[in-house]
Amino acid sequence: MPADDPFPRPVPAVLAVVLRDGHALLVRRANPPDAGLWGFPGGRIEPGESLFAAAERELREETGVTARAERVIDALDALDRAGDGGLRHHFVLVAVLCRWQAGEPLAADDALEARWTPVEGMETALRLSRDVAGLARRAARAG
Prior knowledge:
The protein has helices at 51-63, 122-125, 132-142, and strands at residues 11-20, 23-29, 38-39, 42-44, 66-81, 87-102, 111-118. By secondary structure, it is α+β, with helices and mostly antiparallel strands.
């Protein structure tokens, strides 16, 4: 897609929602949108890649953690707007609940930091991307 495309097309992407012992695995983003904010590991779905495979791959690439993708828990729009209000990017984020299997988080790829964060109180402890705390609570309730 050309950079000057006045109508950016939605880009399908995944979020790997991993919980362990009342904590969610979060990364601090290095790149826009949401650079500097904390959120779930994730990224674009590659052509021919399933949602679950994309969630597992993005999780591994960003944190070194391995998990088994189990089910979709939500889908969200992430709109990145320019200062004049024009749309720069539109991501459709599919949140996938993943069951931790192995590894401790180590930031890699486009993550500045990675860590386990208590689900309770995360919205006051960190500067979060939109919907992160709500998704974490929903995932915790889903078990």
